[in-house]
Design brief:
Blueprint (H helix, E strand, L loop, with lengths): L1 H16 L4 H15 L4 E7 L5 E6 L2 H13 L3 H7 L4 E4 L7 H9 L4 E8 L4 E9 L7 H37 L1
Antiparallel strand pairs: 1-2, 1-5, 3-4, 4-5
Helix pairs in contact: 1-2, 1-6, 2-6, 3-5
């Protein structure tokens, strides 16, 4: 099993590296997460200057809505992972924490959540989020695998983001020139 996961991660790193932008990098990551962690509902949320969160990609409408609610309420697992600097958060029952977010997210059917930071040695790029419709959907093993996947993905997302920024700067320079 370890050899298979290592080979899968190596393939993931290559696939993510080949993506032309942040959005497609995040989408390929979510495809991998759906298969590897059997997560029906997953998303990537990016961190911008000042700690502002912005949804980047989601597997479905449920994950999109859960992320929208996190941004709207300023509460939830992504915020905790980013602000507290925790490497990951597993919540067995969404009604047990983050009152502003929990009440609303439980109404749409999200009952458990897992969020891990997408981090490089120098910065937090965002979070990888998994959502479940049942209580206690995610295990310690899911968290461990999500950490490994997130560490691989963070480098690819950071590189795609940096490349996009460089192209914007080049375009701006051409306009000025």
């Amino acid at each position: 099993m370890k050899d298979e996961l290592a080979q899968d991660l190596a393939r993931l790193a290559l696939v993510l590296h080949e993506q032309p932008d942040v959005e497609q990098t995040a989408e390929r990551l979510l495809e991998y997460v759906k298969e590897t962690l059997a997560a029906s509902h997953a998303s990537v949320v990016l961190v911008h200057r000042g700690g502002r969160l912005e949804p980047a990609a989601a597997t479905d409408a449920l994950a999109e809505e859960a992320d929208r609610l996190q941004v709207e309420t300023g509460d939830g697992p992504s915020h905790t992972a980013v602000q507290d600097g925790t490497s990951g958060v597993v919540l067995g029952d969404t009604r047990a924490r983050w009152p502003a977010w929990s009440a609303q997210v439980a109404e749409i059917g999200v009952r458990s959540a897992l969020s891990v930071r997408l981090r490089t040695p120098t910065t937090t790029v965002g979070t990888l989020n998994l959502y479940g419709r049942q209580v206690d959907r995610f295990t310690a093993k899911d968290l461990a695998v999500a950490h490994v996947v997130a560490d691989h993905a963070a480098v690819a997302v950071a590189n795609a983001r940096n490349e996009s920024t460089l192209w914007l700067a080049i375009d701006a320079r051409k306009l000025i020139g």
